[in-house]
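Complex record, two chains
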Amino acid sequence: MYIIEGRDISVRAGKRRILEVKMVGLEEGKVFSVIGPNGSGKSTLLRVMALLQNPDGGCVYFREERILPRDRIRIRRRTSVVFQEPLLLDATVEENIVTGLRIRGVDAASARKRAKHWLERFKVAHLSDRWARALSGGESQRVSLARAFALEPEVLFLDEPFANLDAPTREALLLELCDVLHCTGVTTFFVSHDFKEVAFIADSTLALFDGKPVQQDLPRNILEHPATERLAQFVGIENIWPARVIEAQPKKILADVKGQRIVVAAAAAQEERIWFSKGDSIKIALRGEKIYCLPADSKNVDAARIPGIPTGYNLWRGKVKSVFAFGDIVKITAECGIEVKISIPAGCLNKYKAGDNIIVSFSTDAPTIINSQQ
Amino acid sequence: MRVIFLDTVFEGLEKAFVLIFSLDREVLSITIFTLKITGTATIISIAIALPLALLLTLRDFPGRRFIISLANLGMGLPPTVVGLWVSLMLWRSGPFGKLGIMYTPAAMVIAQTVISTPIILALSTAALQQIDKKLRWHIMALGATPLQMLFLMLKEARYSLMAAIMAGFGGAISEVGASMMVGGNIQGYTRVLTTAIVLETSRGHFDMALALSFILILLAYAATLWLTLLQQRRYRNVYY
């Protein structure tokens, strides 16, 4: 049973339909996430589900009860929302938390007690008398999370709560949030454009593009086997090649990518959804970090060969076009008849330079197949 | 020439302090009457302007922008023009002539209300519109009723709203044209600080005029000081 569910939700902005979702539901105690690029409609969906915005079509159900306009305030008092900006009131930190509780009819003494508990839980109890607008971004978001949890919601809505924070703060807060979610077991609707956050926190994920769902699956499956090319790009897959099926076998296909042969094993998640026959146009997506590489003059070329793959497949020779270091990884672009983008640890930076000959290889379960019709 | 001018000012100042600190009956009665008239007008203006400002902020309806533009125009409304129109309305042959309130304190309250309402309305609307729309979503998400929402929004904009009210109060207390035209500057009945200053100056009673002008400045300063202290307390809370 879904605790909160949206059916046939549609939202318009002028004449343009910005959101069209047939069904979206949150299972009790689970973290449901929505990912998509900016302007994909994920925050609009959150506002509709949190009863902050009326949809132009469809309706929202709370514990299978259809929510009518007169029920909105009553249901809102059973949920809480954390926005991208902390949106703290022009008052002290403690007052910010107490105000929400007082609105929901909690007496002043209990409200203060709860505020103290949650401020301690998010490590900002020492700021309780400080003016909320004087806090740093990280502190403000901690207060915002404390405020949301102090309301003891049945459903928690998080709208990109870490988007404005620096990387170390974001990481620390994500870990703390995960811990609190685990302890409280609160049902959560988590919106993000960061697929790493989603993979870390969510039980299931809906990918939204142009206001329409493109895939709903486990976060890992969306990351590894995205349903569309745009989603593949969005989740950070660097190599997407058009290909033609040469031979289709159960659980394995052989494809041609501009003269290069690729053997791809269909993952369990894909087997049920799609299968192909000889001559089909497909797209093959491959993460750069799943590609092995070594200098072509290396004496041990066999080290690059993946056991079980016929000789000549998934092992290409080429030339390094460019090498760039991005923090702790190095991005290599190699020309192997097709352009291949490889990500390797920063420690390997000195091994490669533009113009070097290179050998690249990958296992059969590293690439994923995208139906080019989608 | 310069010496005569300075003599006049210093003599005036001396007499003014005597009048103020000896609690001169006439000066005291004019001051209290001024506060009563302007205070009443300001309260009525707040009662009209704040709900309207909330409506203009929270609802989109035909004519909304027109009302805001009128309020902005009203901020610079010349008091004599207000005096003229209120006189025309309250004149015996005017639409509200039957009320018989021309040259009464009630007429002065009406005129000052007309002057201060657009100031409070325009500045309050601007203050409320400054509140992040997402903060409204947040207040809704807390489960606030419409009344709780309005209260929290007013609380959120309280410092800017106070400035708006002070500006309205300042506009009303300092105007002279409208009060003179609709009140008539009748001694002990419709005489306020500004009209009294005009009269005493025209009579050459600079000591009285200066005393009244100091009181007027003092009142305006007291109001401004109160607001400044409140705002600075918040500034200190936020920035230090």
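Note: Chain B is about 80% helix and 0% strand.
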